[in-house]
Write a structure and sequence with these properties.
2 domains; alpha+beta; 13 helices; five-stranded antiparallel beta sheet; Nuclear Transport Factor 2, Chain: A
Amino acid sequence: MSTLPNMKLPDLLAQYRRRDRAPDPENEKAYEPIQPGSGKKSYRPIRPKSGTARGWPFLLAFIALSVVLALHEFVGNSEPFRISSSFIKENPSIREDLGRVSEIRPWFPVSIKATGNVIQVRLTLRIKGQNGAGKAFMTLVHVNDWRIAGAIYENRQGRRIDLTPGKERGEASRPASDTGEGGLAAGHSFFRQGDFPRALAAYDRVLAADPTNSTAYYWRGRTYDKMNLPDKAAADFSKTVILNPNHVEAHNWLGWLAEQEKRYDECVAHLTRAVALRADNAWGYYHRGRCYYQQGKKMEARQDAERSCRLGYDQACKTLKQLP
């Protein structure tokens, strides 16, 4: 006959409610509760990340924004930006597309490159006008002074127009790709890249080997013009027309440089030769008319403006309406 363990009634009721079997003192096993930290794995509470770790992304974003704003302010106060802004506001093609320009802001990308004493700056500018918005991509070169070496305008339709000073003269603003060997091809490659010091060195080598190369003189003159050295440019254009009297573009350039220096007799002489060599030289007629006007020859100025307008030179048509 089995005997109940020596337990009081409340203990029996408690065991019954828990549905536990009665402990057997003889076969009883020790069931010890698991103590915290006594297992094989260490259970540690998860701690929240510190405030410093959470703040790093915000700090980096703040630094990046500060750099962008500082660069924006630096470009906006620079001489290249002021020169570019004046060019944009006065350019007839941009005014025709956007109307009166109300705002010009620096944008990205922006780059600065220094080679010896030559500095090249490339700017991207956002333009807002009465009729909408556009973009300009400006390249400026500094040797003795800042000069615009390239200007591309992106109009409201997304079409890009080359407004580089000299482009409207009717010749290529950059030399065509030359697959030939030697310094002339190297000079053309450097010119297309905007690396004018190296282009100049390449054309110098060509002329040292062949002093009668009119093409090298012409493109070295173009390079001098990009480097804001008009006297040296004019000297090379003069050598070009001596070696090749039928070089229309060299006559155009000589006329242009003479007009800028208010030597109107020389301007008329060179551009008269240029339009004689190419009868559809609308740019030549227009600028010869400008020089005639400065000489007081208003009838000849009007005649040249009319010829240029008939050949499709828009600026001549606008000027014609303003002439007395």
